[in-house]
Amino acid sequence: MKIFTRLVVGLLVCVSLQSWAQQTAVDYFESGVTKSRSGDFTGALQAFSMAITMNPENSASYYNRGLAKANLKDHRGAVLDYDRAIDLNPKDALAFLSRGVSKSKQDDHRSALLDFNRAIELNPDDPQAFYNRGASRSRLDQNRGALQDFSRTLELDPTNQAALYARGITRQRLAEYTSSLADFTRLIELNPKRAQAYAARAASRLELNDFAGVITDCNKAIELNPDDAESLLNRGYAKSKLEDYKGANSDYDKAVTLDVNSFRGYYGRGFCRSKLGDQKGAIADFNQAIEVKNSNVETKVYYSGRISHDKLDELRGVVQEKNKINELSAERSEAYFSRAVSRNKQGDVKNAIADLNRSIELNPTYSEAYFTRGMIKSAQNDQKGAVQDCNSAIKLNPRYAEAYYIRGVIKHALGDENSGCLDLSKAGELGYTPAYKVISDFCN
């Protein structure tokens, strides 16, 4: 079972700036706080960005913009803002805590531990810091340390349900099943509708050979969550141990319906069928148990970050054309550019590229021409050429949000996930909101 950290989004730090000249920065900051509280994190991010532009030495603006990015699942971008907030205020425990959370969301648990350690040094009475450190330790299989952190969380916050569940799971991993029962029982007292707690307590009882208790807890877990295949398997096993083969067979039937790759389900059903005299059915199930792909063994899934060619086409198509009429210069580079756009729409890619090449020759600072040529190159599967053109567009116009977006999705598609996600973060920061959907889907 996995223990997931909780994102810390509380406490939006407000600062008062005295000088009249910075009043506008205060207005943007307060607007960002209001938008964050209402759940408008995109609007909050933009407001905090304006506050930073007007007052780049205010650590609270970076911290709160980091929180907004984290809520948009842009954890790489959030870390960059927390870095700056910490540079400006090295004793901000919340900034260390939040940076640790965003690092843990990227599976960088060793680095997250350092941040949680510092947060605890600065504020040793914060239960959330101990909980998050325990969660990262658990992910690193440092179960004894995790147990200590979850216990400290509960000393500071005795009704913390997440910590009770996490400590119970950690005790299971340490084979301390009797102790884990106490945690799950307390959790059920606090929240009788939490199906996970019943399922987890059943798992501990199974290890203690309390098969009647397993059935009781699994009954409740399944009542609360009828699609809980694991509880059906555990109840089926407990019934088999008590020689209720018909009841067990029914549970295994439901389990393999919910999870067709459940080797435990096929094995258990085969065993019951054999006991009930159906040897043909038993052999068929045992065959399945041997042959089926085992989807129940926990494996670490490393997301490759690669965006397929078709997905890249789809994401590129999100960018809206912004071809506005410009005053025609003596070199007429604008005319070449506009003709290129029209030719590309007609499918005349070769001549469209030729026109863009000529437009750039006539006006080497024409950022839109580089970007448009990059878009066309990407559509023609020349991704490296497209990245080079986006590089040129961004060099000429550092606030070219769409160029960061396109460069980001291409880099991601080529396997450079980290750099691609940073570009997407920058695009979102500059106001190109579709970037956050891509970040949510491919950068976490």
From TrEMBL:
Residues 1-21 form the signal peptide. GO terms for cellular component: cell outer membrane. One of its GO terms (biological process) is receptor-mediated virion attachment to host cell. Keywords: Repeat, Signal, TPR repeat. Gene3D superfamilies: Tetratricopeptide repeat domain. TPR repeats lie at residues 25-58, 59-92, 93-126, 127-160, 161-194, 195-228, 229-262, 333-366, 367-400. The keyword Ribosomal protein does not apply. InterPro entries: TPR-like_helical_dom_sf, TPR_rpt, Ycf3. This is TPR repeat-containing protein. It comes from Fibrella aestuarina BUZ 2.
